[in-house]
Structures are given as C-alpha cells and as structure tokens.
C-alpha cells in the first residue's frame, strides 16, 4: 500500500438553521405608552368639551403657576397693584448673604416667645417664695399680709398693713420689729434671684401735713419707708447692684380702690423686675443702645452709617433670638417640663 503520510483529522461543521425567534417585549412598552397618550388625549378632549371659558382659564393658569391657585380658585394678590402670578413667590427679592432667613422670626413671634419663657420663670419663682413662706416659722404667721402676684413689671411681693399689725408706726418710717424680721427672712431668697428689685412705698389717703395738697407729707413718708425696706434688705445680704429703684407712691395706687383709707393700702411692694422692665429702668439715665442688622455704627442722625438700604431693620439673629431659642430648645427648660404632670400650665 502506498504510504500517504501522516493522517489529518478533518472537522466538518454543520450549522442547523431554525425558525426566527421572537423580537422580545419592546413592542409591549411602546403599545402601553401609546395607549396612555391616547387616554390622556381623550381626557383632555372630554374636559374641554365639558367646561366653559372661565374653567379652562383656571386650569391653564394652575398648570402655569400652581402656587397662585387654591381649591381651584386664584388667590387674590395682597399687593395694591396686581401684576399677576403667585402672591407667595418672590424670585426677584434680594437676600442678605450674612443673615440666614430661617433664623429670623417676626417681631410678634419673638415677643410672644420671650413673654412665655419669662412668665414661666416668674411662676416658678412665685412657687418657690410661697413654699419658703409656708415653711418659715418667721413668715408663716404673717402670710395673710404677704401678697404675691405677677404684673406687667414682674413678680410683685407686697407686705401690707393690718389694723392691729402695721409695718410702721403712724407717721413714722421706722420698721416694726416683726416687719424687719420679715424682710431679713426674705432677703437671702431675693439675693438668690437673678432679677433686679424695685421697692415702692405706699400710704393710705389720710392727709398728713397742711391743708394745701403740695404740703401732703405722704409722698416723702412713702419714699422714706421704701428706703427703710431697702436698708433692711441690704443689711440682710441683698447687694446694692440688685436694687434697681426705690420710689414713693404716696396714696396714688391704693390696693383697695373702694376704700382709700383702708389699712391694706399702707404697704411696701418689692417687685422682681422682668427683662423689659429692667431694661426700661436701666435706660432712663442713658440713651439706649441701637443695634443694626449689619453691625454698623449709628450716624449723627441716628441712622446706620454703613447700613445696606435693602436690609430691613429687624432683630439680629444670634443675640436675643438665639438666647430664646437655646432656652426654648433645652431639654431641661421649665417651659416644656413643669415640675409635675398635674401642675396646671398657665
């Protein structure tokens, strides 16, 4: 046999042709989009055919400016000249780069927050003083002569006369021994408070002095009696810096207006001043400081020397507002956490 050399393997590939496969589900997505578009078209045609010109204008306006419409009706503009569009949009209003608008509250909100926090603090101090009066052997016998209330000026403690138990002798500014004991007992408690004190003396309407009203000695007597109370408080530990004012009221503010000669009208009132009253007293002797929003200094005419005219005159965030927020948001603040759940919130 003839030698054909080394044998080579021959590989035969056969391709089996079958039927064409399907093209997938892309047509289903296209069909769904087409059906949705047709449904939207028919819905628009139905709305147009069943609405009048006014309703169509409202629908068109809503899609152009949704904020200008509420419950299908256009909100009236709050401006005298209505230029159209949404009254709540302010795209062209310049904003300060220094002040965060979110940290600025309206003046009414700031005042309301400050008053709420201040009142709660005074309520707590009132309860503290009442507890001290009831627990003290010196004060408890006179608790019917110690009147506590909260006024627009702050927390007021009044020590009133009784018919058989006056604070002073008639026409005298010398304290009775028990009146002095009351003030000495109250002094440490007052000194522990962070409020400044206003001490006022009051008399009844009984005329002292000559017939002429200008010679009525009740004015000077009430002032001297208030100063006697001031002296007793300071001797018992109240610092001088805590005394805001000592005044004599005479018979101008009777406690019992129906009987100007009643014994209760003869009294000494000690008021723990709130923030506003304390600032009012402090600013009597000097021109109040003016704080501008941009931190500029006041000019000769009282205007800000470097103030931006675009910036409104409002409270600066970071001063009083920040302090109020910190007090309000503190976990242990008495505003949200009264001493017990049964205590009635004011």
Automatic annotation (TrEMBL):
What is the topology of this protein in the membrane according to its UniProt annotation? Single-pass membrane protein
Alphabetical GO CC annotations of the entry are: plasma membrane
Subcellular location(s): the record lists:
Cell membrane
Q: Where is the composition biased (Basic and acidic residues)?
A: 322-334
Which residue windows are transmembrane per the record?
26-48
What's the protein called, per UniProt? Flagellar motor protein MotB
Transmembrane as UniProt keyword: yes
Among PROSITE patterns, the record links this protein to: OMPA_2
Identify the InterPro entries for this entry.
Bact_OuterMem_StrucFunc (IPR050330), MotB-like_N_dom (IPR025713), OmpA-like (IPR006665), OmpA-like_sf (IPR036737)
- Assign the protein's first listed, main location to one coarse class: membrane
Residues of the region (Disordered) are 292-346
Would you identify the family this protein belongs to, as annotated? Belongs to the MotB family.
Q: Does the keyword GTP-binding apply?
A: no
The domain of life is Bacteria
Task: Record the organism.
Answer: Venatoribacter cucullus
The UniProt keyword set, sorted, is:
Cell membrane, Cell projection, Cilium, Flagellum, Membrane, Transmembrane, Transmembrane helix
